[in-house]
TrEMBL record:
Identification of the protein by name: Archease
Ranges where the Archease domain occurs: 5-135
Single biological process term from Gene Ontology: tRNA processing
InterPro entries: Archease, Archease_dom, Archease_dom_sf
Family the UniProt entry places it in: Belongs to the archease family.
Entry keyword tRNA processing: yes
Family matches, as Pfam families: Archease
Amino acid sequence: MSFIEVPHPADVKVRVRADDCNTLFAEAARAMFSVMYVTAEDRGVERTLAVSSDDLTSLMVDFLSELLYISEVDRVVFSTFEVEIDGTDLKARAFGEPFDPARHLGGMEIKGVSYSGLGIVRDGEQFCSEILFDV
């Protein structure tokens, strides 16, 4: 697993690690949906998105926030992601399944992605980020 939940007194915080920045963003998305729905599978739902921001930190918040919006509006649950970052522009494909209350009510509702403490750093050979989700 490339992410772990880090103790936080009020919200949910995850630490994500990956070998490259594209994978870091994909794993951050996977962590967010794991917190919200626990389990999800690729059952033919696919969405594409593009996000541009001023810097990588903002790009992470904007990317995850866009996925939250698509998930809520389209009532879909994503499980895997393909991310391609060029500077501060991101293109992604998200794969998953339609929301099913019988399968997807085991997690926590995430209201938003916070800038609090958010950063993207290179830790040796890996990229690392801690992301706080407002619940």
